[in-house]
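User: Working on a comparison across species. This one is Phage protein from [Mycobacterium] fortunisiensis. Can you predict its structure so I can line it up against the others?
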Amino acid sequence: MSLFAKLSELRAVRTQDSEGTDELSISRADGFQFKAVSMCQGDVVDLDRLLPFDGQLEIVLREVDVRTDEMEDVGSIVIRSEELGRGELTQQFSGAGVLYDLTYKVI
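Assistant: Here's the predicted structure for Phage protein from [Mycobacterium] fortunisiensis:
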């Protein structure tokens, strides 16, 4: 049975560049990038994205160095099929001195 992760929003709680903008890439663990965003501390980005999965889905957040195009992993979260019917949930990406909240639900 295929489920969907409905990604609602990404909130920048603490950015790496506290005075400027973090350039971010959001992707599945298999490398499929589905969103690139620029965020300052306190920003909220509406994702409005449905991602199909079976069992579990790993979402990876990376920061992109605009000078070199190199990516640094910020962290990852795992969305599981057991979360079906639990309503909106929030997990945190934390690493490299940053903190981002991802809100989603499994449908």
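For your comparison, note: The chain has one domain: 3-106.

User: Helpful, thanks.
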